[in-house]
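Supplementary Methods S3. Input chains for the assembly prediction are listed below.
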Amino acid sequence: MNSSLTAFQLALGGGAWGLERPTVEPNDLLVLRIPDLGEVDNTLLEAVLSAEAAVSAAPNDTELIAALDHAVCDLYGLDRDEEVVASDGVQRARSLLFEGRGERMTLVKRPSSEDLTAYAGEVVRTVNAYLRARGKRHLEAVIYPRHIAVGNAVDGTPGVDAVRFSMVAGAPADAPCVHRGSDAEMNRLSALFRGQVSSEVPPYLNERRQLRIYDDNTLFILKPSEVRYWTRTTGLNDGDAILADHWIKGLHAAVA
Amino acid sequence: MQLSPDLPVGRPSFDLSEDQLATVVDLLCRGVAAARPHITPGMLEVPITIHARKAMRRLKKELGLSNIEISGEFELLDLSNDDPEVLGRIDIILRFLHQFGDEDAYIGVECKRVGSGEPTLNQRYVTQGVSRFVSGQYASGHHWGMMLGYVLKLPAATVVESIDARIRATFGEVAKLDELDSHADALSMHTGALVQGPAGHVIRLMHIFVDATPATAASTMSLDSSRCV
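Predicted structure tokens for the full assembly:
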């Protein structure tokens, strides 16, 4: 009951809680989807019980809470990507359920380097899954310490962040490779984008809130500098979009 | 107001088609390797393929592959007439995200048992496998099709030689099998170009021969009569 997966179901799996009323009632609990505990592996159950006991002893320890969430996801048989989506979903749901400036700010603040690294890691992991069979290339990412376009608090524009992805020789490693770009490179990129694409990019970026720019062996992803656009879930989506970019137009393996 | 389509700027340059094909080959070869302990003497194509498909789906999850769907016994319908007949059933198909929703778009894999000293099985590989791609019954208009040969009796080289000779005799010298770098879990891999249908469309068939020797029965001469398509 204390896991994010329960919160995910309550927040996004039903229509009443948070909208009609602020309290969780027995009928909400009755519609929770729970694995058949008589059928699941005992070790999974024991893992949940011990993780829950650990959290009870230290309820403010975020690592222990994450461990409990992970144990519950294992109990539900979720795969890794599903676990990411459920976890991010709870964060997004908070601002819907507990409307307020504080909650909104957690979604629209500038992404940290850790946020961008986690986002880029999911993109790289998604694409690299298809590069593993040949083992000749892999995707790597570069995140930057500064905005590519600075925001304006008066206008309410958040600025733009960019992440660069490049193909590199060699088989993909188990962990995605995400580097930090330098200020000098950031300055060059800012000048490049301002000079070449400023007439087309802003309207498109305003509508879609993301832009993929391919240049030789490199892809730049540009999005508003708000953390909600740079989550691990959006990383999974953007990884799929990159795969689709290459398969829809090119002469593909199966379709004439 | 119309929302702009979600298209990239510039030409997508990562050139992933070969990786896509290699991933399909990897899934097939590793799938059969994982299924091998479940193959029993005398097992026919259909159950071997079911074991392979199950193993492929587990592998897909393990490898974190999104955007791809693995299924089997894919029913082909001839929409040009009103007969209640099925044109054929492909043993394994793989579909990528952009192919969802289009019943004619897939990567088709036909599975057949073959073996050294098994002329009837090797003949069927061509007449009830390769021929279906050539006629357009399977993979009509596609660039690629795949044949998965379950080798019951080694050596694989003898099997390839026999099948290559039969393909050349039936479809001409241009259809000869060229050897490819083999996957670690395959015995050998080959490719050949074939003319599909009267319009002259060229389809490339990839032939993947994998070890299915646990299915060797005392008498492999008892051919699989349960498959009629």
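Residues 17-35 of chain B form the longest helix (19 residues). The beta strands of chain B are 68-76, 88-96, 107-114, 144-151, 178-180, 188-196, 201-211.
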